Amino acid sequence: IPASTRWLVSKGRTKEAEKILRKAAKVNKVELPDELFDKDCLEKEPRVKIWEMFTSPVLVIRSLILFFNWAVISMVYYGLNLYISNLSGNIYINFTISNIVEFLGYCSVLLFAGRIGRKPILCSGMVVGGAACVLSIFPVLYGNSGE
């Protein structure tokens, strides 16, 4: 994997960045201008203020959705991880199963993100996870206590 072109440009290594961009353009069959990085472009550092993100209604809506989504995912993740010790059975086996499922989830995202896309993976993960959490109430309500 080549180095990040933004990082290379920020470190003043424009020749290496241009080489990587030209290789990517060749693979994608795109024509690039002869001079990619001129001195005027490299010397100016654009300064953007954080509140400029909220000037467009589309950016506001998308940002709020992402903030809410991050908060919900974090709370559910930590809530489920903290509840593992309260599940019946061996705590070590429960923890191991939880780690295996989490590892498989990370690997599946790495495998399928490029093929399917991030949005379908996120949406399907949220739906499947929510359904699993809702369905987990039925063994509690209708299962026998085993006593």
Automatic annotation (TrEMBL):
GO cellular component, as recorded: membrane
Compartments it resides in: Membrane
Cytoplasm among keywords: no
Listed Gene3D superfamilies: MFS general substrate transporter like domains
InterPro entries referenced in this protein's UniProt entry, alphabetically: MFS_sugar_transport-like, MFS_trans_sf
Single GO MF descriptor: transmembrane transporter activity
Keywords: Membrane, Transmembrane, Transmembrane helix
Membrane protein topology class: Multi-pass membrane protein
Pfam families: Sugar_tr
Transmembrane segments: 59-80, 92-114, 121-142
Protein name: Major facilitator superfamily (MFS) profile domain-containing protein
Natural source organism: Lottia gigantea (Giant owl limpet)
